[in-house]
Amino acid sequence: MTTTSTKQVPRLDEMTRSELIQYLKDTVKPEEGLIPSYIFSHPKVYELEMEKIFLRDWLFVAHKSEIPNKGDFVTREMGGQSVIVTHGADGEIHVLLNVCTHRGMKLCRMDNGNQKNFTCPYHGFNFKNTGDLIGIPFQKVVYGDTMDKSKMGLKEIRHAVYADLIFATLDADAVSLDEFLGDIKWYLDLAFNRAEMEVVGLPQKWNVDGTWKLGSDNTISDSYHTLVSHGSIAKLGLVPTGDYSKYGYQIYTGNGHGLNLGMPNPDGFAFPESLIDEYKERLSKDQYDILKQMKNMIVCVSPNIMILISSMDLKGQKISQTSLRIWKPTGPDSMEISSWVLVEKNATEEWKRLSEQAFTLTFGASGIFEQDDTENFTDITQNSKSPYHLQENIVFNYTMGMHQDQVEDFVGPGIVYKDKFNEANSRAFFRNWLDQITAE
Ligand code: FES
Ligand SMILES: [Fe+2]
Q1: What is the rounded distance in angstroms from the CA atom of residue 297 to the CA atom of residue 263?
Q2: 152 lines ligand 1 (CB under 6 A)
Q3: Is 103 touching ligand 1 by the criterion CB < 6 Å?
Q4: Rounded to the nearest whole angstrom, what is the distance from the C-alpha of residue 270 to the centroid of ligand 2?
Q5: 258 and which of 187, 252, 403, 429 could share a cystine (Cβ 3.0–4.6 Å)?
């Protein structure tokens, strides 16, 4: 007699591609609010994400203010691939594959700088900051007349700009950035087009043992956790207690993009009063009315961008911070967070300093909110790795707000719900995610 059960753990790694896709379609049920645990860490799911999402979507690579002068560059990663974003000698922005066209060495290993040329550290091929190959050591001797340098420039990656945000895609056939962003642009304007904005310093970066998806999921939908996860902050008196994080709207604009808009702001206007004319000039009347009442706004641009405006009392003033981060996947169960803080270019130096300080205190690498959130992401991801979750088909509950009706008369675009305690946006996010990774 054997005491061993005949229970089987589904072996995703032994499935064919179409079996895996069918398994995902059968087990992930966004409309029912049922999201299985295994998707948060399984390597086979991650493989599909890399191929079907990160090689296809428009990804944020830089803000224009990071490379204001000719020769300025930053290196960034897209779908595991390093790229160099340059302000070329021709005055144009270039997004160049950071791979030497000779034999594949990573051409630039710096995070940022200013250079006219990039010289490969392997054999010395020399490229302009526009990507053109201009020099080969001993070219005549080693190649004679056989090497055509004009065909050996760095590969240029398709890119486009909205609100000074530079996006790039590794898919030459992707829809336009304009179509990809769609109605989320109305809300991006509040963050990045309300005034001329500039990045302060370099992005902060840190690593988390959690999946990138939990970052986006938390961003697009989860104001509900604030009461508990960030409860200690309320106890310290740094944010209002009670259900303060409920008030406002949850909005989905399509393609996996959405936001939570916290309003009204009982504390009053948290942007520089001296810039009101600039705000009014650059925003529509409806957008400015929202800005006036905004307490906070947290936007997810799929797949992995979070944009956050939040406000607090600092040194007796109402101060808002505006930041952007990416949840960059580094594996099935890990990510690197990069976070940029932006300020109004025409604000006073004092206001800029306080705004940066507000960011550092709250959502910087050591910020009080940040510490709480990353513990949640880590524990959910690490738990989900147990084969027990697959064996028992452990499923998480995303049904909150299914009984709620949409608001029809909100001034901005999208599918809108009153109040932010709702998981409607997560359901929409995972539907979009599932459609992408199961597309044939
Ligand atoms: S790999 Fe770059 S010069 Fe050879
Ligand atoms: Fe949080």
Answers
A1: 9
A2: no
A3: yes
A4: 20
A5: 252
Please enumerate in sequence order all residues whose Cβ is within 8 A of that of 56, keeping only pairs 6 or more positions apart, or say none.
Answer: 169, 170, 171, 174, 436
Angle at 169 between CA 172 and CA 365, to 5 degrees: 170
Q: Confirm if 301 and 184 have CB atoms less than 8 A apart.
A: yes
| Closest approach atom of ligand 1 to CA 105 | 1
For the chain, give the mean pLDDT: 95
Distance from residue 355's CA to the centre of ligand 2 (Å)? 19
Looking at the CA of 119, name the nearest ligand: 1
Confidence of residue 233 (pLDDT cuts 50, 70, 90): confident
Determine if ligand 1 sits within 6 Å of the CB of residue 11: no
Closest ligand (CA of 219): 2
Distance 285 CA to ligand 2 centre (A): 31
pLDDT band at 8 (very low <50, low <70, confident <90, very high): confident
- With a 6 A CB cut-off, is 125 part of the ligand 1 pocket? yes
Compute, in angstroms, the gap from residue 80 CA to the centroid of ligand 1.
20
Phi-psi map region of 315: left, alpha, beta (phi>0 left; psi -120 to 50 alpha)? left
Contact 309, 296 (CB under 8 A): yes
d(CA 149, CA 125): 10
Q: Between helices 424-437 and 17-27, what is the axis angle to 10°? A: 160
Residue ranges with CB less than 5 Å from ion ligand 2: 373
Q: What is the pLDDT of residues 346-386, one digit of tens each?
A: 999 999 999 999 999 888 888 888 878 899 999 999 999 99
Higher pLDDT, 26 or 232: 26
The count of other CB atoms within 10 Å of the CB of residue 368 is 16
pLDDT for 242:
65
- The count of other CB atoms within 10 Å of the CB of residue 408 is 6
Output the residue whose Cα is nearest ligand 1's atom 3.
123
**Packing angle of the helix pair 368-384, 212-221 (nearest 10 deg):** 120
Q: Residue 292: CB within 6 Å of ligand 1?
A: no
Angle among Cα 300, 40, 364 to the nearest 5 degrees reads 45
* CB of residue 62 inside a 6 A radius of ligand 1: no
